[in-house]
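Input.
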Amino acid sequence: MTRHESREHIFRMLFRRDFYAADEWREQAERYLNSLEEQEGRQLSEEDKQALLDKTLAVCDKAADLDERIDEAAEGWKTKRMGKVDLTVLRLALYEMAYDEEVPTKVAINEAVEIARKFGGDESPSFVNGVLARLVDRDPV
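Output.
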């Protein structure tokens, strides 16, 4: 599985998180991983499944901190008012920029814009790019 594919799957699991109670979410994530195997027609290794789940949970654990930083950078917008796609993309990208040493900042931003282009509205790519650029200018991560 490529890093881009992994990132997209993590985005999808994070997006689903906001629609389930906390005690149901892990089961839903596992269902997603099982349905992924059916869609792709191949078995995911336990290592791949665990890596996807671990990173998703890591982003969830940092959500309050990530949201606070996003609120500071998104002038005129608060996370409570943002579209779920945009917010999820921003959380994932900021997590990678701040906490994942294996992902260069430029890569995190570029991938976030691509995911926003694929799953978000017409304005999503520029909105995501703008917020992430402000985050980098404000507090280089």
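The two ends are 27 Å apart (CA to CA).
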